[in-house]
Amino acid sequence: MPRDIYQLKITLKDFRPKIWRRIQVDADTLLSDLHKIIQTSLGWTNSHLHQFIKNKRLYSLPSEDDESGAIDSQGVKLSALLKKQKDHMVYEYDFGDGWIHDITLEEILQVDPAVKYPICLEGEMHCPPEDCGGTWGYADMLKILKDKTHEEYESYITWLGGSFDPCKFDLKAVNKSLRQKQYGCIEIMDF
Fold first, then answer.
1. What's the burial of 53, exposed, middle or buried (CB within 10 Å: 0-12/13-18/19+)?
2. pTM of the full predicted structure?
């Protein structure tokens, strides 16, 4: 029986211009693997906790300290939460900075044997750097980077490693990274 492929749009909430990615993944991808795919697609570094939220239920990795009643995301398939076109859920990354993403199921497709999944089809804008203070901190950082005379300009440039282009999105680099990683039992191979 042919596998279904989900085309998802992942959009960072509460920031303009929109930072988003359009990806295609196997419908049976585990949420724990979807987290890794999102991290790679957006450019995050998987340095913080995360959770998925659907119908007020939380899905995350198990933790001894967790008192939220979250369901273990390692045993939940994407197809169990998103079933039809336009279904959506929330992905939260880094509870301190509070990066909230909307995930929308845009299309349900049949697998294309010529495509290596997961794949990023398109996107816009560079992902904010880790630990920059959420959407408000990121907006402040971008204002400072526009003003070379600002007292914090040099410290931000140093922290960012010399430069930062908030408009840059490198689709080829994202897909190269996706092909080089393993997700669950699916090994992604270079072609």
1. middle
2. 0.90
